[in-house]
Amino acid sequence: MVRASLNYVSWKQRKAVANDLRQVYQSATAYEADLQLDSFAKKWDGICPMVSQTWRRHWERITPFFAYPAEIRKVIYTTNAIESLNMSLRKIIKMRGSFPSDEAAFKLLYLALRNASKKWTMPVQNWREALNRFSLLWPERMPALESV
Asked: Residue 143 in 3-state DSSP?
């Protein structure tokens, strides 16, 4: 949401707008985030009104994230790896243009995923904290690891 919002902001103001948006998405509750969005709108709607309008338009999709603890939300917000993977898959598909069959497209995507997985060396930041929280919230889905 933040990156989409910054499309409506001039280059010189991006850093300030991003810092003020951080107050919204790092709020502890949806109610607090709504208050932060109101204060953001008061400050920035004169310059870039589309930012707060975009957040309001998508508010119902944003608010479920506030139900999760901060540790899990940090992992959810970490999308750079996902976006990088999507970009590499789009690049592969775009270079080919058309495929003789669906199976040919699946094979190419499989090979692209296999090559991309070789580059995955850095683990997700704060994953251990999120894993602990996942285990507490959904113990039936997260079986405890056996000690060796």
From this structure: coil
DSSP letter (8 states) at residue 96: H
Between the alpha carbon of residue 69 and those of residues 19, 34, 129, the distances in Å are: 21, 17, 10
Query: Using one digit for the tens of pLDDT, what is the confidence trace for 67-108?
Result: 888 878 877 776 667 777 888 888 888 888 788 899 998 999
Q: What's the gap between Cα 39 and its chain centre?
A: 23
CA separation, residue 78 to residues 70, 72, 84, 139 (Å): 12, 10, 11, 23
User: With a threshold of 0.85, does the pTM exceed it?
Assistant: no
Instruction: Provide the CA 81 distance to its chain's centre, in angstroms.
Output: 10
Contact (Cβ atoms closer than 8 angstroms) between residue 40 and residue 52: yes
Q: What is the DSSP letter of 27?
A: -
| CA-based R_g, the chain, Å | 20
